[in-house]
Amino acid sequence: MSNQIDQPFFSNKNLSWLLIIGVILVGANLRVPLTSAGALVSFIRDDFGISNALAGVITTLPLIAFALLSPFAPKIANKIGMERTIAISLILLIAGILIRSASGIGLLFTGTLLVGLAIAIGNVLIPGIIKMNFPYKIGLMTGLYAIVMNVFGALGSGLSIPIATSGNLGWRGSLVIWGGLAFITLIIWLPQLAKKYGAKKKINNQQIGGLLRSPLAWKITVFMGAQSLIFYTLITWLPTILMANGYDIHLAGWGVFIFQFASIPFTFIIPVIADKMKNQVMIALISSGLIFTGIAGLLAGFSELSILWIIMLGIGNGSAFSLSMMFFTLRTKDGYEAAELSGMAQSFGYLLAALGPVMVGGLQDMTGSWTLPLILLACVSVLMLIMGIASGKNKQISGNV
């Protein structure tokens, strides 16, 4: 495979430190606006006097925006270039953060929608940017991008409440502070707009239709969708599941923290390893197997081993997420095809992610137990395993239509 050729890191004249830093900083902005708002939902709910259901829209609205915009992000990039599209997304992100921090519940939801649209663009295009500009270091750059995204996502969860409660900042001030990160990223990214390597490329409807007809593209899409559904469902319901298994509310809250942090090293390690392998079947097998085992452990109800199950779930999810990012680049011929596949997979994936917590919560309401919801998640992990093994074989989309 071309990405496996031994080349100096800066052999390509298109590479620059500003681009490397820019890609990493864009990654830093792709979760922290969501996790910071999620941590502050109770503050926002109490301030506006809204119901829990309406407050939940704050976290589900961006996921819906991801699903709606993801297929169109590559088409926008095809018209004006990937670098310009990323810059526009950063401007939208800054505007969304400022608007949702202003007065009025209408502005809160408007700003939240803008944040979701902005993040959708970055989610979709960064794999294409990496494929196009770092062809010999795809694994390293994907790993750096993924680990920074997860670290800042965790920081958003952990620091937003202390920031909000320190001094007179409140939840609005806490959200605005994270907007400063987006502003810094925009400044660092601006030089990319002057470079010629981001020139747009013509992509006809036949090529796009070919992607939709590709069995491999759909296998990757289902793999990403299953991983996203499991991740966002666990982020939402894991504390409640742990409390049902005998944990008190404080320890249950730490469960989500452990779940996220257990994944962080593997979001970096897995892309580097995957990039050096002839195929990625074994990674798909292990990551899906860890998720299945973790869910089965929670289902068995061995509360004394819950931390072990959570760590397995974190490692499995982090590995599967990074592997899906690698599929976008390893299974495509160029940056624009990578962006098209990324848009297709993430649209479906985030639609499932938005539905997953609702379906699982509904099943629990109907049965009064977490048994059936966990069985459902275990079945999803089996589907993920099957699709991951199929996606892990050494093939490309262009030859698999």
UniProtKB/TrEMBL annotation:
Signal peptide: none annotated. The gene is yycB_1. One of its GO terms (molecular function) is transmembrane transporter activity. It is found in: Cell membrane. The chain crosses the membrane at residues 17-44, 50-69, 81-99, 105-126, 138-163, 175-195, 216-239, 251-274, 281-301, 307-328, 348-364, 370-390. Keywords: Membrane, Transmembrane, Transmembrane helix, Transport. This is CP family cyanate transporter-like MFS transporter. Residues 15-396 form the Major facilitator superfamily (MFS) profile domain. The lineage of its organism: Bacteria, Bacillati, Bacillota, Bacilli, Bacillales. PANTHER family: 2-NITROIMIDAZOLE TRANSPORTER, PTHR23523.
